[in-house]
Design a protein that fits this description.
Blueprint: H1 3-16, H2 26-33, H3 37-49, E1 53-56, E2 60-63, H4 65-87, H5 96-103, H6 109-118, E3 144-145, E4 154-160, H7 165-173, E5 181-187, E6 194-198, E7 201-205, H8 207-210, E8 213-217
Antiparallel strand pairs: 1-2, 3-8, 4-5, 4-8, 5-6, 6-7
């Protein structure tokens, strides 16, 4: 099993489980990785043999302490590369994810440390995702989804969970970028879409989009 494949599986299990020891089933992994369930079964069995996951047939897979440590290292590399690409090389936040998917597999701790130092040891990447420190610790926050926001309240956009180019361009179109302040005008009872004000402009946000925008009450 190739090193890059191992890293992709561990990172995917980490993300699906929400960064904890939750069980992830084979269908979830297959859907996320774009492979057939049989391929996933074969892969997680090998990861189990490597003591990176605990796999139980007909139940699912969860990361071991060693697997979690490796996953956090990959996540750290990925998010530092995203930040470097945006801050130092001028790539848009809608471009950095795909490039970082390739760069994250460069295993050079000194390089990542130098990049982090160059960036001033950032706590968050361009999408607002927390960057694990060298020990794998993540800064806690009181962020919520926009879908959990309340009417007549003011918020600040802190991140997004959908890194697709289409979604990020959609947000840029409405100036809903990291750091933007907004106020909730109304929440539609019918479909839970949100009407808000941002940059003195009224914008209607779909329920699907509100699930992918992370905010903090201002």
């Amino acid at each position: 099993m190739q090193s890059e494949t191992i890293e992709n599986y561990l990172k995917t299990i980490y993300h699906i489980s929400g960064g904890n020891a939750s069980i992830v089933n084979n269908k979830q992994l297959a859907d996320k990785l774009g492979v057939i369930p049989a391929t996933v079964t074969e892969a997680v069995k090998k990861l189990h043999e490597l003591k990176l996951v605990i796999y139980e047939k007909s139940y699912g897979t969860r990361l071991t302490a060693a697997g979690s440590k490796m996953a956090l290292s990959i996540v750290r590399r990925h998010r530092i590369w995203e930040t470097y690409l945006e801050k130092e090389l001028g790539f848009g936040w809608d471009e950095v994810h795909e490039i970082a998917e390739e760069l994250e597999h460069i295993k050079n701790d000194k390089l990542i440390k130098k990049l982090s130092e160059k960036l001033g040891h950032p706590n968050f990447d361009p999408h607002g995702d927390p960057i694990p420190d060298e020990k794998g610790k993540i800064q806690k926050s009181n962020f919520i989804k926009l879908s959990e926001a309340r009417p007549k309240k003011n918020y600040k956009i802190m991140g997004v969970t959908d890194h697709s180019s289409a979604f990020l361009k959609y947000l840029e179109k409405h100036q809903l970028i990291i750091g933007a302040s907004l106020s909730i005008k109304t929440i539609e009872q019918f479909d839970h879409s949100i009407v808000l004000f941002c940059k003195n402009k009224e914008v209607s946000i779909s329920p699907k989009a509100t699930e992918c925008i992370i905010v903090q009450e201002a």
